Structures are given as structure tokens and as C-alpha cells.
Here is the input.
Amino acid sequence: MNQDLIVPEVQEVQVDSTNVVVISDTPNKNARWFVVHTYSGHENKVAETLKQRAQTLHLTDKILACLIPTQEKIQIKRGKRKTINQKIFPGYMLVNMELTDDAWLAVRTTQGVTGFVGVGTKPRPLPKHEVDAIKKYMTQATPQYKAEFSEGEAVKITDGPFNEFLGTVKSINEEKGKVEVLVSIFGRETPVELDFLQVQKVSE
Here is the structure.
């Protein structure tokens, strides 16, 4: 069995305490990662509830950890910059477990869980390369920017030579934190590249 999928490796990729809920430190060579569907926005609460259920039902040797994949992003809102942890797969979490009947039932009947992701009645574990890809994506060194606006939306420029101009978002580059805005100059629309910090929604 592949030892890469046991709990200790999860702890190595922990970005902050909200990403992983360790239920047991005891290695289980039969444990695999399964994807569980939850109510969106309730992932952390579901993980904590599952931890309590595993302890109450004495299944901590079968249900080892929950992982909620997130990635750091820089959010620009009202001209202020802050780092947030954004869920990569809202409404989903990974559970490291040995798929026994008791463990399956405990996870499946946890409040907030709507089911396992898989084909047919029996859940399928995630392939190792997919688990590795998710972990690598979580720990990318450079945080990406999270846009608070969308293409086609009206925005106001708040800084720079076009301060107070109104325009329309033409394109967004979240990786660089740049936005291209169409501004009316001399009666024609001209594209201007700006930082996220230099624009805000008209409604704000």
C-alpha cells in the first residue's frame, strides 16, 4: 500500500489550522483519500462534527483526517488589501479513511454531508497523482489576487491619471492583480491597464 496517503503527509502541507482536521495520528496503511460532498460554506463545521463522531463511535483508527483544500489569495476590497484563504472546491472536502462499512456509515450520516463522490454505490479513492496535485496547488508560493468585480461590470478608477473616471471591465488577470478597463477618452473607448487597488465597483 502507498504510504504517501497517510495522515503525517497531510500535516506537512497544512497552510493554516482551518485546512486540516486531524482525527487520529495513528497511521493506517489501508487509508485512502475520498471526496465527500457537503453543504457549501459548512465544510469546516462538517469536518469538526465528523471528528467528534469518529471519536464517539471509536472509529479514529479508520477515519484519520479531513482536508479542506484552500489557497491563499490577496483580496482587494474598498481599496484595501488583505490575504484570505479561499476554498478551492466549495462544497467538497477530502477524508482520509479506511473504507469499512462502519466508517462509511459514520461519514455518510454526518450532519452536513450529502454523499461521497464516485461512480456507482461504492466510493472510489482519489488517485495519488490527483491528491499530490491538490496539495501542490494549495502550497503555491505566490498568492493570487481575487477579483471583486467581473468582466462587463462598471467600475470607478480611484487612483492614477484617470482618477474619478468611470469605465467598464474588459478583462481581468487575477494572477497579476491587473484589470483592463475601457475608459471613454475623446469620445472613444480606450483600454487602460490598472491594478486591482486602483478600481472599485461603482456601487461602493
